[in-house]
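Sample entry (132 residues):
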Amino acid sequence: MAKALLVRLGGGKFTRPRISKEYKKWVTKQCEIKLDPSLVNQENIYKELDEKIMLGMRLKEGVNIHKLINEQNWNKKKSEIALRELLKEWEIFLESGLLIKRGNRFFLSDHRGMELSNQILIAMFKWWEKIN
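Predicted structure, serialized as tokens:
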């Protein structure tokens, strides 16, 4: 049996396998059974939104902005306003083809979009500062 790392959280015991093969199985199981709410830091979800967008935009499949915004601890009205304002910031990039929207996913276009991604990300950061 693999040695495990024991962590105390809120008085409870929580173990994580130390061997990578066992750790992978453990992580998969945690995803399937949903994590214990005490392990999810709800405060950080909001703070990580800009990072998730920034990193997701560089992925080939892009990022689902609607999903990310819906993961926030915002009411429906705030989510709708935030999305509308972000799309307004990105409008020029969508029109120019540097940013591509397919369904709810947004991603940078090949070559030019990647080269000019900092401009798109700056627009996202401006939006982030407004809502934060």
